[in-house]
Design a protein that fits this description.
single chain; mainly alpha; 6 helices; about 0% strand; elongated
């Protein structure tokens, strides 16, 4: 009889305990509250850094794309006289050799499943590593 009353009392008391975040925070000791507040602050700080870096990288990416377009167009260089009008090869060739000049364009070779760049890149990395090791051994490093 006594055990059933204790079990019933234990069940009733556990149902009355509030396990919400605010209730647990309110019952926590001062040390736990400080740690929780520090973790929340660190989380906001980390997210602020992440968002700031995202904005900076997007801005840098846009600036780099704008620079690439301006650089590779060559318009400014042509305006200030650093280059001649050699941007369009066909028009320059026709101007120099006449309108009857025949221009043949060559397309790049087709790649087998697109793996040739992968293999050439791997070979370049391998050669660079070998050259690096040779130069290190040359100086005794």
């Amino acid at each position: 009889m006594i055990t059933e009353a204790l079990i019933f009392k234990a069940i009733v008391t556990t149902q009355e305990i509030d396990f919400s975040f605010w209730a647990l925070f309110a019952r926590a000791t001062l040390t736990v509250k400080i740690v929780i507040l520090m973790l929340i602050g660190a989380s906001f700080w980390a997210w602020a850094i992440i968002i700031q870096r995202h904005l900076v990288f997007n801005s840098a990416r846009r600036d780099a794309a704008r620079f690439d377009r301006a650089f590779w167009s060559g318009e400014k260089s042509l305006e200030i006289g650093l280059i001649d009008d050699f941007g369009e090869m066909k028009s320059v060739l026709k101007q120099r050799f006449g309108e009857n000049v025949k221009i043949k364009e060559f397309a790049p070779k087709k790649k087998l499943f697109g793996f040739s760049n992968l293999f050439s890149g791997a070979i370049d990395i391998f050669i660079n590593k070998i050259e690096e090791r040779i130069s290190f051994k040359k100086f005794g490093l």
